[in-house]
């Protein structure tokens, strides 16, 4: 039986230190432990793996979905995709607070949320109809790869699990990869910023 610990290599530890620094506002020094006492679903040792984003939308709808579609990178070079013969295309469940199924059409703490387009939603207060709706976007955004310009797509760190509660396709195939949130959150879209179509 596995120990139920998650192992991180040096690159993953540096990335996690950077995320922790964003949350704490402090620059972290020293080495992070190679293991974290995390018990993934099903037990055993789980390793975090980097992928690059292909899309965060479902089919041709143009709407965000509960998962992203990503491709594997070269394990020896973060700046390259894996060779075509070994490259994997996987679906990765988003963190729960970014999944449309968690908020769409629901009123949470007096605020009603609706999906409007990829990476965007609207928030209204039903009890106060005169309040203007607020447009919210995911920051940092999920940015798909652009081969013509040499951009590989947003880097997504994920762990494999027994299940994430998300399925896709006509056969309801389970999504077994779970994104580790790297600081993405909802933020108000102000007049100074616009989203390209």
By DSSP (H or I, 4+ residues per run), the number of helices equals 2
The proportion of strand residues reads 35-45%
H-E string = EHEEEEEEHEEEEEEEEE
| DSSP E strands, number | 16
Indicate the mean pLDDT.
Answer: 79
Shape: globular
Helix/strand-derived class?
Answer: mainly beta
Distance between the termini: 50 Å
Radius of gyration from the alpha-carbon trace, in angstroms = 18 Å
Q: Give the strand line-up of the largest sheet.
A: 4-5-7-15-12
**Which blocks of ≥5 consecutive residues have pLDDT under 50?**
28-40
| Number of separate domains | 2
Which bin fits the share of residues in helices?
under 10%
The major pleated sheet works out as: 5 strands, mixed, barrel
